[in-house]
């Protein structure tokens, strides 16, 4: 993992994952999808496990999802993360692609820190929507999640 | 695989002390454990011709063979996925011996996790895939990944922290009987558990394994040879590895059904080749890096139905005299966390009748390796 100045980890992008992060930098949530049979897959990989096609497309998602599960990490953690602990880390199941689950953080606003939402407000099944912001100044834009209601 | 049944046996076990900090190097500890296991078997080191270890092991077979004065080796193997490989080491040696590729095999684990760095702090060593999808969001440690599954499991099946406490307590109670355990004479209470600090909510301090310096080893030979060894043979009855379809490693939450982990895959093969079933298991040594792995494994290995693993822990089921005595040396939670190898040696002691928490008349034992990573398991019998 690359570390921006603030010590938060940036994704180390591989060939399969690169398009996801390129779209994220443009503020788009897209999921790798088989161009032959239409099955979405995550994490990205070279070929489709359903039909073995190597042809893919990156399907735009609505950006809506539900919290599948979440944790609240406490130290010991890497220093940058310890500095905002306890924070939330969530797994979001996408409304448009059930079973595609993305790890992320629920924040109060796109650029808000990882501890900007009280974990007591999180529930499995709660609706969230995606926004994009770097984890730290100068970092790569990554998906962040806002609670749909209050 | 039916051809492997009871053809090989564990003839010797050995270990060093377990502590938060031991002065000797990992390599030295490995040599001591292997030599102790050979002495336990009554076999000279010069007869060793096969080696099996698993990843994250720093002492390789070249160094070990040279140091102990082994003979010419004709088989060596290293299994992937950290703690998921513990039982596979014995399985690989058993297969090598059954097929005539070798005659005396040693498997070992040496680790200075207590005094050494925590693996997850080495960000450079974390693989880009799948770490790019988790680490930036602060899912940094195995506890965070298992915590994610644990919360979902609690939500789906009504599991509670009291269920996880029952697991931690059973292991601690057994460690309290075991002078070699790090938690010998250190009882655990429900109040201690419920008021302990969080590591990754919903997991608290006592849901996590120990951090230990130490080494263990075992010697595998043919069943025939084992009958002439110093101690009672423990037969390798059935073995299995498990890498489920579409599995992603410890972040198993990208499969269609994250709550059925590699245990389910390993179990199908393990029971298929066995002469007995889960109801006939006298004692179990189940990988316990985290307490929620126990209910998930109880379901996977068929001791109860899907979603029933938490309820299974109630009423002292995991204690001595219970339905399935668990981790009778204290396990990774309370004896030592040496990537699960202590579960193998304790399985052997139970079937020899020499455990510090002996299950009366124990004749069958399940031993499992790390769950939620590609895993392995053994059925041992006396
Ligand atoms: Zn396809």
TrEMBL record, chain A:
Q: Which InterPro entries match?
A: ChsH2_C, ChsH2_Znr, NA-bd_OB-fold, Thioester_dehydratase-like
Which positions fall inside the ChsH2 C-terminal OB-fold domain? 58-132
- Pfam family of the protein (one): zf-ChsH2
Protein name according to UniProt: DUF35 domain-containing protein
Q: Where is the ChsH2 rubredoxin-like zinc ribbon domain?
A: 21-55
UniProt cross-references to Gene3D superfamilies, sorted A to Z: 6.10.30.10
